[in-house]
Amino acid sequence: MTISRRLGIGYGIIAAVCLLATGWLGYHEFVEEPAEFASLGLSDIVHKDTRAEAFTVGVLVVVPVLLAYGWWWTRRVIAPLRELAVAAERIESHNLCLNLPRETGSNEVDTLAAVLASMTNRLDASFQQMRDFTLQASHELKTPLTVMRAQLESLHRERDHLPPEQNSWIEQQLDEVARLAKIVDSLTLLTKADAGLMELERKAVDFRALLLEAFENAAVLAESRAISVTLGAVAPVTIIGDRHRLRQLLLILIDNAVKYNRQGGSIQLSSAVGDGWVELHVTNEGDGLTEDLRHRAFERFFRGENAVGKVAGCGIGLTIARWIALAHEGSIELRPEPPGSTTACVRLPITPTPGMTASVSQQEAKVSLSDRVKAAPGFSPPSEAI
After folding, report:
1. What is the CB neighbour count within 10 angstroms for residue 241?
2. Residue 42: its pLDDT value, please?
3. Is the N or the C terminus of the chain less surrounded, counting Cβ atoms within 10 Å?
4. Tell me, what's the pLDDT at 43?
């Protein structure tokens, strides 16, 4: 409960008690007592000082008025605090330099606003240093990783002349270097996004074609774990955005749906058009998530108990997915539906395209799938899916 409300309740109780006391005293002095003396035949009450009693009643009547004025004045005094609280609540990591309301005079509220402004400025400087360090570190890490990868690939080309155990070691090192390179690229992307240095293309994107491509990738990725991938209704939609980043968003969700699925489970992809929005659903039959995990899944480097030590990854993928959705003025969330499953739901603003059919069938999406699977039996998720 706010301070102003507590003060208002306190003032209200005191005012009510004063009004009740005033009413009772006035009724007793001017109604009950005259009636009692009249019943005794005493019409002229010479011994009674009515002026003093009237003054007492008047004072009691004025008390609630004074309390009401005091309550109004208190609200006026603490109003700057309320405005300061509302402004401070809007402060986030990307707008730490937001101006806070200041008082004209030198008082406690103005001092508090100055302290908060100084604190946010120091935080902004610290965050900027962290972003600069991350950018510089990721840039410096790319060179040794590139050298290591080139040397390992050079050795791998000589695999016919090396013992099998050494070939296995080289392949493992190549996988680890590739994983480190993905992490570095992801850190660079997120740091640039935090600093507002990422620019997205704003072009018309055929979201249906993008989803069909993602469906084919999902089927290839899920094949090794005997996971079936089905395609529901797909709405014909054109989105104004960055095709590369939207593809990256789909790959992240599909890669997670495969990694966090059960052996022999299923994945379903579908989309529907709402009032100016397209809603994408990616559903997997993995272990359900608690409400806390569904919200924390988008935090940077967060990994649930079902992922640590069991599923490859570093906890950045969904953070990137959320940034892509927000950068396209959309949203993303994880839903516990259907029961026992998890659905990633992405909402994006659309630009309708007239003349397109209403839906696409799963058979249409599979036209080139079998050829692609045969051509790429060792298919792995692109580097965008972390």
Report:
1. 25
2. 63
3. N
4. 59
pLDDT (0 to 100) of residue 309 = 47
Q: Specify the pLDDT at position 377.
A: 36
pLDDT value at residue 360 = 43
